[in-house]
Design a protein that fits this description.
CATH class of the largest domain: Alpha Beta
Number of strands: 15
CATH architecture of the largest domain: 3-Layer(aba) Sandwich
Bound molecules: 4'-deoxy-4'-aminopyridoxal-5'-phosphate
Radius of gyration: 21 Å
Order of helices and strands: HHEHHEHEHEHEHEEEHEHEHHHEEHEEEH
Length: 367
């Protein structure tokens, strides 16, 4: 039997139908595609960190509960003592843990769309149904459609990213509450994950919703605040949920170098937050300049801005022309019907944003 036939016989058809998560080549480019923080640390901080790393014992397994990281997170994120903290290799791993734990046969994962693609991909990985509920045209939540889908599909797990990726906006609080309550009703129970990946750039924090709702957990990450390379995500929630999820976490999922680096970075969190403040100011100026260039600019509480292309060029043309100029953004056109002819710009450092606007002016002949 040929290897192709063997693979086709053995690998689940829904896995064979998947496309791997796309990561474009970006060497030498101005990288405004992946919501990273563009800033490095000040040199004295780098030197201190390097000497810490020199003391890491790579011959030993990491501490399975990463106590220094948990303590640092509790402090900077003001997590009340009564809640537990679960760490993942990025919040991607936490999404996977949640899906694995709730994936009873016939279970369903539900999320508004357009949304973060890993919710759907991970549902497929673990073999459960996925239901995407379209947002309204202005990217607000379609409360009626969400409640109808919840009544129909009875999802075990609902993801609500606040701010949402790729749209960048926050949703009305009463819509969120209606969804959470519909998932803790006599006829249906589901766990709602409030995904606060972009919290450092947002005006709303949902940590105290853990007090209000038994069926809510809050997920965050250090990726957007400046530590995408470390891979550290976290889940905050009641002990009853987290102690179950912890049973399926790989014992050493947070490696020695990540633990040392994250604990160090959390002690210097103020440096990262200052960088985020610069990015928030850059976001405002980016939105103004994009508007001046004729883009339709959507509101954003994140470190990226979603836009509709101006009349003079399509999203795809602008994406290709920027790539020619060594600037990488995200072409969201085609990712979802509501994203037709749109682009997503990650907010970069001031000099990167200047390079972007110089290139956009050339491309759109706006000089
Ligand atoms: N949630 C949302 C909404 C995201 O946009 C992302 C990253 N793009 C993640 C979670 C995953 O982040 P990480 O795995 O880097 O923690």
């Amino acid at each position: 039997m040929s290897i192709e036939t063997l693979v086709a016989n053995l690998i689940r058809p829904e896995i064979r139908a998947l496309q791997a998560y796309p990561v474009g080549k970006a060497e030498g480019m101005v990288k405004l595609d992946a919501m990273e923080n563009p800033f490095r640390w000040p040199q004295e901080m780098v030197s201190e960190w390097q000497s810490l790393l020199a003391d890491c014992a790579l011959n030993r397994y990491p501490n399975p509960v990463a106590p220094e990281v948990v303590a640092g997170l509790r402090e900077v994120m003001e997590v009340p003592e009564q809640y537990e903290v679960l760490l993942g290799n990025g919040s991607d791993e936490i999404i996977q843990l949640l899906a694995m734990a709730l994936a009873k046969p016939g279970a369903c994962v539900l999320a508004p769309e357009p949304g973060f693609v890993m919710y759907k991909m991970i549902a497929t990985f673990v073999g459960v149904d996925y239901c995407g509920v379209p947002l309204k045209e202005d990217f607000s939540l379609d409360r009626d459609a969400m409640l109808a889908a919840i009544a129909d599909k009875k999802p075990a797990l609902v993801f609500l990213a606040q701010p949402n990726n790729p749209t960048g906006n926050l949703w009305a609080e009463d819509d969120l509450v209606a969804i959470i309550e519909a998932c803790n009703a006599p006829d249906h129970q589901g766990l709602v994950v409030l995904d606060e990946a972009y919290l450092p750039f947002s005006s709303r924090n949902h940590l105290n919703w853990l007090d209000r709702f038994e069926n809510v957990v809050v997920m965050r990450t250090l990726s957007k605040v400046g530590l995408a390379g470390l891979r550290l995500g976290m889940l905050f929630g009641r002990k009853e949920w987290l102690s179950e999820l912890d049973k399926i976490r790989m014992p050493y999922n947070i490696n020695v170098l990540t633990q040392a680096s994250a604990a160090f970075a959390l002690k210097h969190y103020v440096v990262l937050m200052q960088q985020c403040e610069i990015l928030k100011a850059e976001r405002t100026s980016m939105q103004q300049k994009l508007t001046q260039l004729g883009f339709s600019v959507f509101e954003s509480e994140a470190n990226f801005v979603l836009v509709g292309a101006p009349e003079s060029a399509t999203a795809r043309e602008i994406f290709d022309a920027l790539k020619q100029e060594n600037i990488l953004i995200k072409c969201t056109d085609g990712a979802h019907p509501l994203l037709a002819n749109t682009l997503r710009f990650t907010v970069g450092a001031p000099e990167e944003n200047s390079a972007l606007f110089a290139a956009l002016s050339r491309i759109l002949n706006a000089d």
